[in-house]
Amino acid sequence: MTLLTFTDRGIYCPRGDFYIDPWRPVARALITHAHADHARPGHGAYLCTPGSAAVMRHRLGEIAIDTLPYGQVLDINGVSVSFHPAGHVPGSAQIRVAYKGEVWVVSGDYKLENDGLSEPFEPVPCQHFVTESTFGLPVFKWQPQAAVAADLTAWWRSCAAQGVTPMLGAYSLGKAQRLMTMLDDSIGPILTHAAVENTNEVLRGAGYALPDTIRITPDLDPKAHPGAMLLAPPSALGSSWSKRFGRGSSGFASGWMALRGIRWRHAGDRGFVISNHADWGGRLSAIQQMTAENIYVTHGYTDIFTRYLNDCNLNAQVVPTEFGGDEAGEDAA
User: pLDDT category, 34, cuts 50, 70, 90?
Assistant: First the structure.
């Protein structure tokens, strides 16, 4: 019996009788992180890290959820299960599943650069590695976080000098909080859309240290916060919500900004190339560190990335899933 199998409900462990990030309702779901394409409603019971649990309760309401701290091993019907940092967003995990010497690791989404907020990626040696390929093309090569932070600071200072309000669009879980830690708030206050601030409150309650922010409410007076930076989901920029702040400059922060067509589609004034997913080189580095004999490639540029791995004499195959990737939707991150 194969320890993990790929089914129409998700990645399944027959011996342990549980699923990992299932996309259809199941009795028991182990969840890598709290983004909506991986943590879906309707499961009978959930297991995740404490950091992910806080956000999942906020998003999914009253659910039956247990937590497992990083590195702690849980026996499920004789199968050893443990969670290890994925570096993707706060609380995100790779899930290690082992039985009688057979070891699998399901990555969920991950990145290798330590962003100073999410728990840093931890290589977990295994024989079978399930990897995403959201940015599985050589064109995707990220700059160091410090370089992007310098660009953000220069843009904010320029806007402040011109009396223009900078409006930065970013996914409300993970990317928005990462950007907050990169912004130089000596320039001015950080004002946040309710979707972002609601997540901020959950993460602060879970023990994550975030900079001070001000929730944007209907009665907030923009003139009372000169030089402010607005942080909101991309869908809010250019809407009636943002027009109350007068003359603005819109910016989008996403790995997709590396592609000119995506820049044009968003029609923002600035695009900042930064992602909470591994780039091409990071993905290859992770696979090398895992030392896996078999690679299973999920959502993203699956065919191209798998073909490259096989050309490198690795045993790789595409595994169809229903993960969308948080950077593929309207609120690209």
Answer: very high
